[in-house]
Write a structure and sequence with these properties.
Blueprint lengths: L1 E10 L2 E7 L4 E5 L6 H13 L19 E8 L4 E9 L2 E6 L2 E3 L2 H4 L5 E4 L5 H4 L2 H15 L1 H25 L6 H40 L6 E6 L11 H22 L10 E6 L2 E2 H4 L2 H23 L4 E5 L7 H11 L5 E5 L14 E4 L2
Parallel strand pairs: 3-13, 3-14, 8-12, 12-13
Antiparallel strand pairs: 1-2, 1-4, 4-5, 5-6, 6-7, 9-10, 10-11
Bound molecules: adenosine-5'-triphosphate and magnesium ion.
The site of adenosine-5'-triphosphate has 15 residues, from helix 1.
Length: 365
Protein backbone atom coordinates (compact mmCIF):
# COMPACT_ATOMS: atom_id res chain seq x y z
CA UNK A 1 0.00 0.00 0.00
CA UNK A 2 1.15 3.56 -0.50
CA UNK A 3 0.01 7.07 0.19
CA UNK A 4 -0.20 8.87 -3.15
CA UNK A 5 -1.32 12.38 -2.30
CA UNK A 6 -1.67 14.14 0.96
CA UNK A 7 -3.21 17.39 2.18
CA UNK A 8 -2.92 19.22 5.48
CA UNK A 9 -4.76 22.19 6.85
CA UNK A 10 -3.64 23.84 10.10
CA UNK A 11 -1.89 20.74 11.38
CA UNK A 12 1.02 21.58 13.77
CA UNK A 13 3.17 24.20 11.99
CA UNK A 14 1.62 23.51 8.54
CA UNK A 15 -0.91 26.11 7.51
CA UNK A 16 -1.65 24.45 4.20
CA UNK A 17 0.07 21.63 2.36
CA UNK A 18 -0.67 19.67 -0.81
CA UNK A 19 1.88 17.10 -1.79
CA UNK A 20 2.34 14.02 -4.00
CA UNK A 21 4.49 11.20 -2.72
CA UNK A 22 6.69 8.63 -4.40
CA UNK A 23 5.45 5.05 -3.99
CA UNK A 24 8.95 4.02 -2.85
CA UNK A 25 11.35 6.18 -0.85
CA UNK A 26 10.59 9.76 0.24
CA UNK A 27 13.14 11.79 2.18
CA UNK A 28 12.26 14.90 4.18
CA UNK A 29 15.36 16.97 4.75
CA UNK A 30 15.75 20.26 6.57
CA UNK A 31 17.22 21.97 9.64
CA UNK A 32 15.77 21.46 13.12
CA UNK A 33 12.27 22.61 14.00
CA UNK A 34 11.03 22.93 10.40
CA UNK A 35 8.25 20.36 10.55
CA UNK A 36 9.82 17.08 9.42
CA UNK A 37 8.56 15.09 12.39
CA UNK A 38 5.24 16.94 12.21
CA UNK A 39 4.82 15.68 8.67
CA UNK A 40 5.53 12.07 9.67
CA UNK A 41 3.22 12.48 12.62
CA UNK A 42 0.49 13.70 10.25
CA UNK A 43 0.89 10.62 8.02
CA UNK A 44 0.80 8.38 11.09
CA UNK A 45 -2.25 10.21 12.39
CA UNK A 46 -4.09 9.77 9.08
CA UNK A 47 -3.55 6.01 9.48
CA UNK A 48 -4.24 5.56 13.19
CA UNK A 49 -6.18 8.68 14.28
CA UNK A 50 -3.63 8.86 17.07
CA UNK A 51 -0.29 10.56 17.41
CA UNK A 52 2.83 8.64 18.37
CA UNK A 53 3.97 11.43 20.66
CA UNK A 54 0.91 12.89 22.36
CA UNK A 55 -2.44 11.75 23.67
CA UNK A 56 -3.85 15.23 23.38
CA UNK A 57 -5.22 15.87 19.89
CA UNK A 58 -5.54 19.57 20.72
CA UNK A 59 -1.77 19.94 20.48
CA UNK A 60 -1.98 18.98 16.81
CA UNK A 61 -4.12 21.95 15.82
CA UNK A 62 -1.98 24.84 14.60
CA UNK A 63 -1.54 27.53 17.25
CA UNK A 64 -4.35 30.07 16.87
CA UNK A 65 -6.55 27.83 14.65
CA UNK A 66 -9.91 26.28 15.47
CA UNK A 67 -9.51 22.97 13.68
CA UNK A 68 -7.08 20.84 11.71
CA UNK A 69 -7.72 18.78 8.59
CA UNK A 70 -5.90 15.82 7.03
CA UNK A 71 -6.68 14.05 3.81
CA UNK A 72 -5.00 11.46 1.62
CA UNK A 73 -5.46 8.90 -1.08
CA UNK A 74 -4.13 5.42 -0.37
CA UNK A 75 -3.44 2.95 -3.16
CA UNK A 76 -3.73 -0.72 -2.26
CA UNK A 77 -3.20 -3.73 -4.49
CA UNK A 78 -6.88 -3.96 -5.38
CA UNK A 79 -8.39 -0.59 -4.63
CA UNK A 80 -7.96 3.08 -3.75
CA UNK A 81 -9.30 4.67 -0.58
CA UNK A 82 -9.71 8.30 0.24
CA UNK A 83 -9.24 9.08 3.93
CA UNK A 84 -10.16 12.29 5.65
CA UNK A 85 -9.93 13.47 9.26
CA UNK A 86 -11.06 16.67 10.89
CA UNK A 87 -9.93 17.63 14.37
CA UNK A 88 -11.50 20.16 16.69
CA UNK A 89 -10.68 20.82 20.36
CA UNK A 90 -13.80 18.75 21.18
CA UNK A 91 -13.10 15.67 19.11
CA UNK A 92 -12.46 14.26 15.67
CA UNK A 93 -14.47 13.08 12.68
CA UNK A 94 -13.42 10.55 10.08
CA UNK A 95 -14.44 9.82 6.49
CA UNK A 96 -13.65 6.90 4.21
CA UNK A 97 -14.42 7.61 0.56
CA UNK A 98 -16.47 10.62 1.71
CA UNK A 99 -18.65 8.52 3.99
CA UNK A 100 -18.50 9.60 7.59
CA UNK A 101 -17.49 6.76 9.95
CA UNK A 102 -19.35 6.91 13.23
CA UNK A 103 -16.87 4.56 14.87
CA UNK A 104 -13.14 5.18 14.61
CA UNK A 105 -12.66 1.41 14.79
CA UNK A 106 -14.30 1.25 11.35
CA UNK A 107 -11.85 3.85 10.00
CA UNK A 108 -8.56 2.57 11.45
CA UNK A 109 -7.00 -0.24 9.44
CA UNK A 110 -7.75 1.26 6.02
CA UNK A 111 -4.16 2.47 6.01
CA UNK A 112 -1.37 0.82 8.01
CA UNK A 113 1.73 2.64 9.15
CA UNK A 114 4.69 1.64 11.27
CA UNK A 115 6.75 4.41 12.79
CA UNK A 116 10.28 4.04 14.06
CA UNK A 117 11.83 6.89 16.02
CA UNK A 118 14.61 7.32 18.58
CA UNK A 119 11.96 7.27 21.33
CA UNK A 120 11.31 3.63 20.47
CA UNK A 121 14.35 2.79 22.57
CA UNK A 122 12.00 3.35 25.49
CA UNK A 123 10.19 0.19 24.44
CA UNK A 124 12.87 -1.85 26.17
CA UNK A 125 13.92 0.36 29.09
CA UNK A 126 10.85 2.53 29.59
CA UNK A 127 7.88 2.10 31.91
CA UNK A 128 5.31 -0.68 31.30
CA UNK A 129 2.87 1.95 30.03
CA UNK A 130 5.13 2.46 26.99
CA UNK A 131 4.80 -1.22 26.09
CA UNK A 132 1.04 -1.24 26.65
CA UNK A 133 0.69 1.78 24.41
CA UNK A 134 2.78 -0.03 21.82
CA UNK A 135 0.47 -3.08 21.97
CA UNK A 136 -2.64 -0.94 21.77
CA UNK A 137 -1.45 1.06 18.77
CA UNK A 138 -0.05 -1.88 16.83
CA UNK A 139 -2.67 -4.49 17.57
CA UNK A 140 -5.43 -1.90 17.19
CA UNK A 141 -4.42 -1.16 13.63
CA UNK A 142 -4.45 -4.81 12.58
CA UNK A 143 -7.60 -5.83 14.41
CA UNK A 144 -10.57 -3.48 14.61
CA UNK A 145 -12.14 -5.59 17.38
CA UNK A 146 -9.03 -5.03 19.48
CA UNK A 147 -9.49 -1.30 18.99
CA UNK A 148 -13.17 -1.52 19.83
CA UNK A 149 -12.58 -3.52 23.01
CA UNK A 150 -9.76 -1.16 24.09
CA UNK A 151 -12.06 1.83 24.00
CA UNK A 152 -14.81 -0.16 25.80
CA UNK A 153 -12.27 -1.19 28.38
CA UNK A 154 -11.20 2.39 29.09
CA UNK A 155 -14.82 3.42 29.63
CA UNK A 156 -15.85 0.54 31.89
CA UNK A 157 -12.57 0.72 33.82
CA UNK A 158 -13.23 4.35 34.58
CA UNK A 159 -16.75 3.54 35.80
CA UNK A 160 -15.48 0.70 37.96
CA UNK A 161 -12.69 2.86 39.41
CA UNK A 162 -15.15 5.66 40.17
CA UNK A 163 -17.40 3.22 41.96
CA UNK A 164 -14.51 1.67 43.90
CA UNK A 165 -13.56 5.18 44.98
CA UNK A 166 -17.10 5.76 46.24
CA UNK A 167 -16.94 2.47 48.16
CA UNK A 168 -13.57 3.40 49.63
CA UNK A 169 -14.95 6.75 50.80
CA UNK A 170 -18.08 4.99 52.10
CA UNK A 171 -20.26 7.08 49.81
CA UNK A 172 -21.61 3.84 48.32
CA UNK A 173 -22.20 0.44 49.90
CA UNK A 174 -23.85 -1.76 47.28
CA UNK A 175 -21.42 -4.51 46.31
CA UNK A 176 -23.86 -6.03 43.84
CA UNK A 177 -23.34 -3.04 41.54
CA UNK A 178 -19.58 -3.68 41.82
CA UNK A 179 -20.25 -7.28 40.70
CA UNK A 180 -22.10 -5.98 37.64
CA UNK A 181 -19.23 -3.68 36.68
CA UNK A 182 -16.67 -6.42 37.39
CA UNK A 183 -18.52 -8.81 35.13
CA UNK A 184 -18.62 -6.26 32.29
CA UNK A 185 -14.97 -5.33 32.68
CA UNK A 186 -13.79 -8.95 32.85
CA UNK A 187 -15.68 -9.74 29.64
CA UNK A 188 -13.92 -6.96 27.74
CA UNK A 189 -10.57 -7.69 29.45
CA UNK A 190 -10.71 -11.32 28.29
CA UNK A 191 -11.19 -10.25 24.67
CA UNK A 192 -8.17 -7.94 24.88
CA UNK A 193 -5.95 -10.42 26.72
CA UNK A 194 -6.69 -13.28 24.31
CA UNK A 195 -5.72 -11.04 21.37
CA UNK A 196 -2.56 -9.87 23.12
CA UNK A 197 -1.56 -13.51 23.67
CA UNK A 198 -2.12 -14.29 19.99
CA UNK A 199 -0.36 -11.25 18.54
CA UNK A 200 2.62 -11.25 20.91
CA UNK A 201 3.21 -14.89 19.93
CA UNK A 202 3.29 -13.95 16.25
CA UNK A 203 5.40 -10.86 16.90
CA UNK A 204 7.82 -12.99 18.88
CA UNK A 205 8.41 -15.45 16.06
CA UNK A 206 9.02 -12.73 13.46
CA UNK A 207 11.19 -10.66 15.80
CA UNK A 208 13.34 -13.67 16.67
CA UNK A 209 14.26 -14.20 13.02
CA UNK A 210 14.88 -10.49 12.36
CA UNK A 211 16.97 -10.16 15.51
CA UNK A 212 19.20 -13.13 14.84
CA UNK A 213 19.84 -11.81 11.32
CA UNK A 214 20.77 -8.34 12.54
CA UNK A 215 22.89 -9.51 15.45
CA UNK A 216 24.57 -12.17 13.31
CA UNK A 217 22.93 -15.01 15.26
CA UNK A 218 25.00 -14.20 18.33
CA UNK A 219 21.86 -13.37 20.26
CA UNK A 220 18.47 -14.89 20.73
CA UNK A 221 15.56 -12.52 21.34
CA UNK A 222 12.30 -13.61 22.90
CA UNK A 223 9.23 -11.51 23.61
CA UNK A 224 6.92 -12.61 26.40
CA UNK A 225 3.54 -11.26 27.29
CA UNK A 226 2.92 -10.78 31.02
CA UNK A 227 -0.75 -10.51 31.90
CA UNK A 228 -1.14 -8.91 35.31
CA UNK A 229 -3.52 -11.75 36.17
CA UNK A 230 -0.68 -14.23 36.60
CA UNK A 231 -2.84 -17.37 36.43
CA UNK A 232 -3.60 -16.78 32.76
CA UNK A 233 -1.83 -19.27 30.51
CA UNK A 234 -0.92 -18.78 26.86
CA UNK A 235 -3.32 -21.49 25.68
CA UNK A 236 -6.37 -20.28 27.63
CA UNK A 237 -9.52 -19.51 25.66
CA UNK A 238 -11.58 -16.34 26.18
CA UNK A 239 -13.99 -18.04 28.62
CA UNK A 240 -11.14 -19.35 30.81
CA UNK A 241 -9.43 -15.95 30.79
CA UNK A 242 -12.71 -14.31 31.80
CA UNK A 243 -13.04 -16.67 34.78
CA UNK A 244 -9.48 -16.02 35.88
CA UNK A 245 -9.96 -12.25 35.69
CA UNK A 246 -13.16 -12.53 37.77
CA UNK A 247 -11.25 -14.67 40.29
CA UNK A 248 -8.54 -12.02 40.55
CA UNK A 249 -11.15 -9.31 41.21
CA UNK A 250 -12.61 -11.49 43.98
CA UNK A 251 -9.19 -12.06 45.49
CA UNK A 252 -8.30 -8.38 45.34
CA UNK A 253 -11.67 -7.07 46.50
CA UNK A 254 -10.71 -5.83 50.00
CA UNK A 255 -7.57 -4.22 48.59
CA UNK A 256 -9.42 -2.66 45.65
CA UNK A 257 -12.04 -1.16 47.94
CA UNK A 258 -9.36 0.16 50.26
CA UNK A 259 -7.37 1.73 47.42
CA UNK A 260 -10.38 2.75 45.35
CA UNK A 261 -8.98 1.39 42.08
CA UNK A 262 -8.85 -1.71 39.86
CA UNK A 263 -5.64 -3.57 40.61
CA UNK A 264 -5.47 -6.17 37.82
CA UNK A 265 -6.30 -6.42 34.14
CA UNK A 266 -4.98 -5.27 30.75
CA UNK A 267 -4.16 -1.78 32.09
CA UNK A 268 -1.52 -3.41 34.30
CA UNK A 269 -0.03 -5.85 31.76
CA UNK A 270 3.51 -5.79 30.45
CA UNK A 271 5.87 -7.27 27.88
CA UNK A 272 9.30 -8.73 28.51
CA UNK A 273 12.15 -8.62 26.03
CA UNK A 274 14.65 -11.34 26.80
CA UNK A 275 18.07 -11.75 25.19
CA UNK A 276 19.89 -15.04 25.70
CA UNK A 277 17.67 -15.72 28.71
CA UNK A 278 18.43 -12.36 30.36
CA UNK A 279 15.82 -9.66 30.75
CA UNK A 280 16.74 -6.81 28.41
CA UNK A 281 14.97 -4.29 30.64
CA UNK A 282 17.77 -4.65 33.18
CA UNK A 283 20.74 -5.69 31.08
CA UNK A 284 20.55 -4.49 27.47
CA UNK A 285 23.19 -2.03 26.24
CA UNK A 286 22.27 0.95 24.04
CA UNK A 287 23.22 -1.00 20.93
CA UNK A 288 21.19 -4.01 22.03
CA UNK A 289 18.17 -1.84 22.75
CA UNK A 290 18.48 -0.39 19.28
CA UNK A 291 18.65 -3.85 17.72
CA UNK A 292 15.68 -5.06 19.74
CA UNK A 293 13.50 -2.10 18.82
CA UNK A 294 14.49 -2.42 15.16
CA UNK A 295 13.69 -6.15 15.22
CA UNK A 296 10.31 -5.42 16.74
CA UNK A 297 9.54 -2.90 13.98
CA UNK A 298 10.58 -5.37 11.29
CA UNK A 299 8.39 -7.98 12.96
CA UNK A 300 5.44 -5.57 12.89
CA UNK A 301 5.85 -5.09 9.15
CA UNK A 302 5.61 -8.87 8.72
CA UNK A 303 2.69 -9.11 11.10
CA UNK A 304 0.71 -6.43 9.28
CA UNK A 305 1.48 -8.19 6.00
CA UNK A 306 0.40 -11.58 7.35
CA UNK A 307 -2.91 -10.21 8.59
CA UNK A 308 -3.82 -7.76 5.82
CA UNK A 309 -1.89 -9.06 2.79
CA UNK A 310 -0.53 -5.52 2.38
CA UNK A 311 2.79 -4.05 3.48
CA UNK A 312 2.38 -1.08 5.81
CA UNK A 313 3.87 2.34 5.17
CA UNK A 314 7.13 2.79 7.04
CA UNK A 315 7.97 6.08 8.78
CA UNK A 316 11.56 6.52 9.93
CA UNK A 317 12.06 9.59 12.08
CA UNK A 318 15.75 10.47 12.51
CA UNK A 319 16.74 6.86 12.84
CA UNK A 320 19.08 6.41 9.90
CA UNK A 321 21.90 8.27 11.61
CA UNK A 322 21.28 6.17 14.74
CA UNK A 323 21.79 2.93 12.85
CA UNK A 324 25.14 1.69 11.62
CA UNK A 325 25.63 0.62 7.99
CA UNK A 326 24.80 -3.00 8.75
CA UNK A 327 21.52 -2.21 10.49
CA UNK A 328 20.55 0.36 7.85
CA UNK A 329 21.10 -2.09 5.06
CA UNK A 330 19.27 -4.83 6.96
CA UNK A 331 16.30 -2.52 7.45
CA UNK A 332 16.18 -1.35 3.87
CA UNK A 333 16.74 -4.88 2.51
CA UNK A 334 13.72 -5.98 4.42
CA UNK A 335 11.46 -3.39 2.96
CA UNK A 336 12.96 -2.88 -0.43
CA UNK A 337 10.36 -2.56 -3.09
CA UNK A 338 7.71 -3.71 -0.64
CA UNK A 339 6.85 -0.73 1.48
CA UNK A 340 6.57 2.96 0.84
CA UNK A 341 9.10 4.59 3.14
CA UNK A 342 9.38 8.09 4.58
CA UNK A 343 12.70 9.15 6.08
CA UNK A 344 13.46 12.37 7.95
CA UNK A 345 16.97 13.67 8.33
CA UNK A 346 18.86 16.91 8.89
CA UNK A 347 21.53 15.94 6.38
CA UNK A 348 21.99 13.30 3.73
CA UNK A 349 25.41 12.23 5.00
CA UNK A 350 24.26 9.42 7.25
CA UNK A 351 22.16 7.75 4.59
CA UNK A 352 23.57 4.88 2.63
CA UNK A 353 22.98 5.64 -1.04
CA UNK A 354 23.57 2.18 -2.41
CA UNK A 355 20.56 1.16 -0.40
CA UNK A 356 18.15 4.04 -0.91
CA UNK A 357 17.86 4.04 -4.68
CA UNK A 358 16.39 7.08 -6.43
CA UNK A 359 14.53 8.59 -3.50
CA UNK A 360 12.27 11.58 -3.91
CA UNK A 361 13.73 14.38 -1.80
CA UNK A 362 11.68 17.13 -0.17
CA UNK A 363 13.28 20.15 1.46
CA UNK A 364 11.26 21.18 4.50
CA UNK A 365 11.40 24.77 5.70
P1 LIG B 1 14.15 18.21 14.35
O1 LIG B 1 15.14 18.09 13.24
O2 LIG B 1 14.69 19.00 15.47
O3 LIG B 1 13.58 16.92 14.77
P2 LIG B 1 11.64 18.81 12.99
O4 LIG B 1 11.76 19.39 11.62
O5 LIG B 1 11.32 17.38 13.08
O6 LIG B 1 12.96 19.16 13.78
P3 LIG B 1 9.12 19.29 14.28
O7 LIG B 1 9.16 18.42 15.46
O8 LIG B 1 8.36 18.77 13.11
O9 LIG B 1 10.58 19.68 13.78
O10 LIG B 1 8.55 20.70 14.79
C1 LIG B 1 8.59 21.87 14.04
C2 LIG B 1 7.98 23.02 14.80
O11 LIG B 1 6.57 22.85 14.91
C3 LIG B 1 8.46 23.26 16.22
O12 LIG B 1 9.20 24.45 16.26
C4 LIG B 1 7.20 23.43 17.04
O13 LIG B 1 7.23 24.52 17.91
C5 LIG B 1 6.14 23.63 16.00
N1 LIG B 1 4.81 23.21 16.44
C6 LIG B 1 4.47 22.14 17.18
N2 LIG B 1 3.15 22.08 17.40
C7 LIG B 1 2.62 23.16 16.80
C8 LIG B 1 1.30 23.69 16.67
N3 LIG B 1 0.25 23.06 17.23
N4 LIG B 1 1.13 24.84 15.97
C9 LIG B 1 2.19 25.47 15.40
N5 LIG B 1 3.45 25.02 15.49
C10 LIG B 1 3.68 23.89 16.18
MG1 LIG C 1 12.11 15.81 14.21
Amino acid sequence: MYLANFELKDFRNFEELKINFDPHVNIFIGPNAQGKTNLLEAIYFLALTRSHRTNSDKELIRFGSKFAGLQGKVHKSQLEVELKLRLTPNGKKAWVNRLEQKKLSAYVGQMNAILFSPEDLALVKGAPSVRRRFMDLEFGQINSEYLYYSSQYRQVLQQRNNYLKQLSQKKAHDQIFLDVLSDQLAGVAAEIISRRIKYVKKLNSYAQVAHSEISGQAENLQIFYHPSVKEIASNDDVETIYKKVIASYKRNRPNEIRKGTTLSGPHRDDLDFVINDKNAHNFASQGQQRTISLSVKLAEIQLVHELTQEYPILLLDDVMSELDQRRQSRLLDYIHGKTQTFITTTDLEGISWEIVKEPKIYHIS
